[in-house]
Amino acid sequence: MAGEPDRDRDPGPGPSVLFLHPDLGVGGAERLVLDAALALRARGCDVQIWTAHYDPGHCFSESRELPVHCAGDWLPRSLGWGGRGAALCAYVRMVYLALYVLLCSGVEFDVVVCDQVSACIPVLRLARRRKKILFYCHFPDLLLTKRDSFLKRLYRAPIDWVEEYTTGMADCIVVNSQFTANVFKNTFKTLSHIDPDVLYPSLNVTSFDSAVPEKLDDLVPKEKKFLFLSINRYERKKNLKLALEALVELRGRLTSQDWDRVHLIMAGGYDVRVLENVEHYQELKNMVRQSDLGQHVTFLRSFSDKQKISLLHSCTCVLYTPSNEHFGLVPLEAMYMQCPVIAVNSGGPLESILHSVTGFLCEPDPVHFSEAMEKFIHKPSLKATMGLAGRARVKEKFSFEAFAERLYQYVTRLP
């Protein structure tokens, strides 16, 4: 347990809201959960976060401003080498967490907001006093894994059924983008009668506005003028190799003088408990060595919020490489910091980035990415022009105030 449950806190004028989340780390889902909790607290709600794993040293700093409680971390995250059975273990951990909250914590609450894993919803229905349940669907989990063998299909069949059935048990379902809303409708056939609302993630810009950017002398050689930045977890589905392949392609497009001033920082969430993080990080380092990019690439693992803001403040452009990303907070963070974004032309970035205005939307191949990168080198003023347009777009379409108000309306008007 991380701290004692807040049984004696004076409730605010709003409902008491409990967030259930599988693993409070440093991903986009965790950023959204924290921002949602902060938003509801600002509206007078009594808020707590319960999770199966929480490490304050490997989480966003705002988590320390909220009551965060942990239960069930002793349960396994996988069934053996290679992370096998991770989905089943995540379901078990969340069911245990929900049971613990109901039977052992002594905490009273009116509304539950859960995300990622819906298997805990039937457990919450067992409460003596009915809880209202809002499920935030980032993306159907059944689409996040391959079924390349009969055993894998056999293993996933009941898990996929449970996900679809239990998702439909929520009182309200919201999704993070129109892209995800369409995928939801096409994936969960038995839930075709449900039209999930789109609640775009936003930025809590307080930390961005208050931070004083630091110098990057320890990360980037002084002679580098064109600094490209990739921010994403060290996972293969994030297609981080595309950034390195684009850098190789860019080398062939530039004069040696311009090439000498180019640098790429590969910043990413990294967890030693996750085998894929460890393996993929090494794969990327091997790729840098084989491509002779050692003098042009810096790896940064599990960076701090201040480092991220300093990087966004100083870099020429952000490279956002995943395809069919559900939404993606990194483009919003970059645009708010007046940093253009080059992203794949699919998924959430189609809704956040304006092509040729706040950045470039490209086919997911190194040629198109390198062509977009080259534009910032031959026309440096493009960064300032697109940067201003990006900040204006975030303020207009993805403001924290609008997000907070819509979320509060959902929570207070649940049937």
Automatic annotation (TrEMBL):
Pathway terms, separated by semicolons: Protein modification; protein glycosylation
Cellular compartment(s): Endoplasmic reticulum membrane
GO CC terms of this entry: cytoplasmic side of endoplasmic reticulum membrane
Swiss-Prot/TrEMBL GO biological process terms: dolichol-linked oligosaccharide biosynthetic process
Every Glycosyl transferase family domain range: 217-392
Recorded topology in the membrane: Single-pass membrane protein
Highest taxon of the lineage: Eukaryota
Entry similarity comment: Belongs to the glycosyltransferase group 1 family. Glycosyltransferase 4 subfamily.
Protein name (database record): Alpha-1,3/1,6-mannosyltransferase ALG2
Organismal lineage: Eukaryota, Metazoa, Chordata, Craniata, Vertebrata
